[in-house]
Amino acid sequence: MRALKSTRICYLANASDPHTAKWANHFSSKGCEVHVVSFEDARGISPNVVVHKLSTRWRSSLRYFTVTDELKRIIAEVQPALLHAHYAAGYGTLGRLARFHPYILSVWGRDVFDVPTKSPLHRVLIKRNLGSANYVCSTSRFMADHTHQYYKGLIRLTPFGVDCSKFMPCNLQASEPDEFVIGTVKRLEEKYGIEYLIRCFALLSEKYKGSKKLRLVVAGEGSLKGKLQRLARECGVEELTQFLGFVPNERVPQLLNSFSVFVALSILDSESFGVAVVEASACEIPVVISNVPGMCEVVQAGITGLVVPRRNPEAAAEAISTLIENEGLRRGMGTAGRKFVIQNYEWSENASRMERLYQSILGFDRAVNPGRVELTCSNY
């Protein structure tokens, strides 16, 4: 199988998103000439990657329809071997209008879960964008199955993955050896259920008052920060709750290792992929999650973590209480969690799936036929 070295790859994606940076940096490290075309400023992208910033006076989604000529000029200058758009709505629209092939489109979540439900026009838009791609990728089986409502071809599974050499257990010197730390790393928006985590913590704080040292750590920024801080005060747990704000990705492994349990109580009907949950499991931290399709895919219930109903702080408190009172179970789930991540979501293996797809598209591997159409997703 011939290497991809020197191959020119062009991404259409949000240059400020850490997942864009992971893909771009990975293929740049493999010797590819990587270009990213984006409306957003780059964040975390290697200086070896060329970033082309699109400009328009439009701030709405209409902007994707106004820069087609600019994108075509960039493509003509770069002359990439393939074009890969991330997100089936905005950048997927731009990729369709570019009319460049071979063209890959990766769905991320809201683009196929939420956008098509806005109106019949949005549904048609997503169908057309997916239909214009030569190859479609998804980060999870659940999202691939959902995407088949709008696209009947073969969908390849390409999880975001976790670098298990960075996200790994480490022995931190705890400031409070007997303290039990309940933590989460999520944006502070309604859909992620931080409200229910705070209410859950208040129940636990009352239950273990005088017998256990508990602390809640919430990492992330968002529009509900003030409201959630007020809720913590109203629930009487303000002094036991830390709002850390945004935490850079390079500091997340250390933060996760300071947790006794990682909790994600999303209230969504579905999630595309539980990256933060996988990162916690890679650090051997047991997890408690709500029963959200997609996120449940990255947790083995009763083995690597516990699954509770959505919008139910009482059930979440009971699950966390089980882990508080059973250190052996907690350690066992942590160990099983890292093993599960290494087997299924290790970054180098997940990235190699995309490498193999690129190689087959460019004819470097004649044994694989990526153009066949199936109605089921593939473990490519």
Number of strands: 14
Mean pLDDT: 91
Q: Determine and state the CATH class of the largest domain.
A: Alpha Beta
The biggest sheet amounts to: 8 strands, parallel
Instruction: Classify the beta-strand content into a percent band.
Output: 15-25%
How are the strands ordered across the major sheet? 3-2-1-4-5-6-7-14
Please tally the helical runs, counting DSSP H or I stretches of 4 or more residues: 13
Low-confidence stretches: 366-380
Q: Helicity, in percent?
A: 25-40%
State the CATH superfamily name of the largest domain. Answer: Glycogen Phosphorylase B
From the N-terminal CA to the C-terminal CA, the straight-line distance is 16 Å
Number of domains: 2
Q: Can you write the helix and strand succession as a string?
A: EHEEHEHEHHEHEEHEHEHEHEEHHHE
CATH architecture label name of the largest domain: 3-Layer(aba) Sandwich
CATH topology of the largest domain: the name is Rossmann fold
Structural class comes to: alpha/beta
Radius of gyration: 22 Å
Overall, the morphology is globular
